[in-house]
Specification:
The chain has about 350 residues and is of the alpha/beta class. It has a single domain, classed as Alpha/Beta hydrolase fold, catalytic domain (Rossmann fold, 3-Layer(aba) Sandwich). Helices cover about 30% and strands about 25% of the residues. The strands form three sheets. The chain has an eight-stranded mixed beta sheet, with helices on both faces. Strands 7-11-12-13 form a four-stranded mixed beta sheet. The protein has a two-stranded antiparallel sheet with strand order 10-14. The protein is globular.
């Protein structure tokens, strides 16, 4: 089944899931959650054209949505504020056997979950075959705006909000640890993510900006991933650690991209992969630098390089053993968040 048809089917199932568990989306976009609302929530964000516009300001405004749910046994008193996790989806959008499944696992640990939809409100189904449909910088803005919003909820501890993301969302989980992005969106607020968890994220064209958060970062990658190869992430982990990043990297042998899905692995011939690329995006100032010779690319040179290095095709599908290991790793990281208390 082609990626677009599969993603459309997932979107239908997601709609059923949201209606059953969270009720209808409220029509008004909100900038704070002081009223303690839950369920489907629309809130303001930005759609920058790239990292430069996100950092400089002036990005077009947008309204996106998320579904906020609490554990069944969560206290409703302000004295018992609990941790929360933002969930950032990948290029295929929200998939019923991934984001909702992880949200349920997290809530069973005692954590509130805020599952973002960066695509639907913008009229996008998927970006796997064309990542230009929504710049990564827009998803980064969405996640940081979600952090800003959750910090105003009377039942959530603003010092214990983490993020977990998958594939493109895994990149979001990583790049929200970079202070230039956080500072650009948070507008003087000191709120920051207390935990970053990235599953099978791409590290072939990484963003690099300092300072780097000292909050724990967990990266779970597939050893057999031919879509976003784990081998490219070693140098990025080294870069993060050299700047004080608290990074734990686990490569799950034999696992493909999307190892936490229920569907068996299959090759998707049309998806875009950056596995043939090797270019850092520095944030201060914004510039592109090649891995091979350190040469800095400008303007049209960047587009020409990307057109030459981007490839098509990648294997996507589940691996029960890798999923079990990932659940164990995520539970360990989230239990650390739960036990951290207010700093």
């Amino acid at each position: 089944m082609r990626l677009e048809r599969w993603s459309a089917a997932c979107s239908v199932l997601l709609a059923i899931f949201v209606l059953a568990s969270a009720g209808p989306v409220r029509g008004e976009a909100v900038s704070d959650l002081a009223d303690g609302r839950t369920g489907a929530i629309r809130f303001p964000s930005l759609t920058p054209s790239g990292p430069g516009q996100l950092l400089a300001g002036g990005a077009p405004e947008a309204v996106i949505s998320g579904t906020l749910l609490f554990p069944d046994d969560a206290s409703s008193t302000m004295a018992d504020r609990i941790p929360a996790m933002v969930i950032s989806h990948g290029s295929g959008g929200i998939m019923p056997d991934r984001e909702p499944a992880w949200a349920e696992r997290l809530r069973k640990l005692g954590v509130a979950t805020f599952m973002l939809d960066s695509f639907g409100p913008r009229g996008i189904t998927a970006t796997g075959t064309d990542q230009s449909r929504l710049p990564l910088a827009a998803s980064i803005a969405d996640a940081l705006q979600a952090l800003r919003l959750l910090a105003t909820h009377p039942r959530i501890d603003p010092d214990r909000i983490g993020i977990i993301g998958f594939s493109k969302g895994g990149q979001v989980a990583l790049y929200t640890a970079l202070e230039p992005f956080r500072r650009a969106v948070m507008a003087g607020r000191d709120t920051r993510f207390a935990l970053h968890i990235a599953l099978y994220s791409s590290c072939s064209i990484p963003y690099m900006g300092e300072p780097v958060s000292t909050a724990p970062i967990l990266m779970l990658l597939g050893g057999a991933d031919d879509y976003t190869p784990s081998a490219h992430c070693g140098r990025y982990v080294d870069w993060l650690r050299a700047r004080g990043g608290d990074v734990r990297l686990e490569v799950l042998e034999g696992a493909h991209h999307g190892f936490d899905l229920q569907t068996p692995p299959r090759f998707l011939r049309r998806v875009q992969s950056a596995r043939g690329c090797g270019m850092d995006i520095l944030l201060d100032p914004v510039e592109a630098r090649l891995w091979t010779d350190g040469r800095t690319l400008q303007g049209d040179e960047i587009g020409a390089y990307l057109r030459g290095c981007m490839e098509r095709g990648g294997t996507v599908g589940g691996n029960p053993e890798a999923l079990a290991r990932a659940i164990e790793e995520v539970e360990g990281a989230v239990k650390g968040l739960i036990g951290a208390g207010r700093r």
